[in-house]
Write a structure and sequence with these properties.
Layout (H helix, E strand, L loop, with lengths): L1 E5 L4 H17 L4 E6 L15 E4 L7 H14 L4 E4 L6 H8 L3 E5 L3 H6 L2 E3 L7 H6 L23 E8 L4 H5 L8 H13 L3 E4 L6 H8 L9 E3 L7 H10 E7 L2 H9 L2 E6 L4 H4 L6 E5 L28 H9 L1
Parallel strand pairs: 1-2, 1-4, 2-3, 4-5, 5-6, 7-8, 7-10, 8-9, 10-11, 11-12
Helix pairs in contact: 1-10, 2-3, 7-8, 7-12, 9-10
């Protein structure tokens, strides 16, 4: 079976999509799986051997329609037996039909999708995102992979450690999607944990330079219990190893959260305007940290608005609140 999977979004979306691909591989052990995704998310391939090939399709760039036509051309040239695509756009079924692939699976977006797809699957957004994506293949297989699985071996824990990854993607910040507390709060979290005798490790990616510098300016970087790993994790896989070594992991609503889930490390996540029920599994290993703000439309981001509001009451979370949750 030669399978094309299509899933556009950030690296977190691709990690969410891994259980779907894993179940497909269980159903068709000798299959070849090609994933079409955005170039910014290509590092997901470093985490898994489920994906045999990538089609990099820049649907967020200036030449969106050219890129989609490129995808159609690559799909036709690839002689695929099956295509599975996420996304709730009504035209996705048209795109899949244009590929000429015989078996086509996507979400039910109305009459057109019901006509053009082999099976149009109901889209249920009110569940953990891994389960939402996995619904796409419910007509294909009875295998059910609940959580992301990555090719990083379980790590030996470093005793008494708390790893902090404070950042979110620069793209979300530029679009006005504020999803975490500021550098001052993160710095206070580090200092409070050091005061409790914890060994604090700090990590971040290229997008996190500003927040990392803000933290380093306020904390005791010479403390024997503080280790700065910023710039030392050169890939998502390196970060996964570090997350696996930590006893506890504190992060924002961003891709490293999903790596923490895959590594089965006790993970604490700052949630403001986004929906923790969709973004974390029901597990004793993952805990949301939220403000007690009583906002009537929370969570609002994506459900009610595309950017966060100016008040940001949902992110008025103190450093002490965060530390209390971690030490509980």
């Amino acid at each position: 079976m030669n399978i094309l999977a299509i899933n556009f979004g950030g690296i977190g979306d691709e990690i969410f999509f891994l259980p779907t691909l894993i179940s497909l591989k269980k159903e068709f052990p000798n299959s070849k799986i090609t994933l079409a995704l955005e170039p910014r998310s290509k590092s997901v391939k470093d985490l898994t051997d489920i994906i045999d090939d990538l089609f990099l399709i820049d649907v967020k760039g200036k030449n969106k329609y050219f890129e989609l036509l490129k995808l159609v051309f690559l799909a036709q040239k690839g002689h695929f037996d099956m295509v599975v695509s996420s996304g709730g756009n009504k035209l996705i079924s048209v795109l899949l039909a244009m590929t000429g692939i015989r078996e086509r699976y996507g979400y039910d977006t109305g009459k057109l999708s019901q006509i053009l797809l082999t099976k149009a699957v109901p889209l249920n957004k009110k569940q953990y995102a891994c389960a939402m994506y996995h619904d796409l293949i419910s007509p294909i297989t009875e295998y059910k992979t609940e959580l992301p699985e990555i090719n990083v071996a379980p790590q030996e824990k470093i005793e008494n450690t708390v790893l902090i990854h404070p950042g979110v993607s620069k793209m979300s910040v530029n679009k006005g999607m504020i999803k975490t507390v500021g550098a001052d709060v993160w710095a206070d979290v580090v200092s409070l944990l050091l005061g409790q005798g914890k060994h604090v490790m700090l990590a971040g990616g290229p997008d996190d330079k500003e927040v990392i510098e803000g933290i380093l300016a306020k904390v005791d970087v010479n403390s024997p219990n503080f280790t700065n790993y910023y710039g030392k994790t050169k890939s998502l896989k390196d970060l996964a190893v570090l997350i696996g070594q930590a006893e506890k992991f504190v992060c924002s609503d961003s891709a490293p959260l999903h790596v923490g889930v895959a590594m089965k490390t006790r993970t604490y996540v700052i949630f403001g305007p986004t929906d923790d029920k969709m973004l974390i599994p029901q597990s004793d290993l993952v805990a949301p940290i939220k403000a007690n703000d009583n906002c009537p439309i929370k969570p609002c981001l994506w459900a009610h608005r595309q950017t966060t509001c100016e008040k940001l009451d949902c992110l008025k979370i103190s450093a002490q609140d965060i530390v209390n949750a971690v030490l509980k």
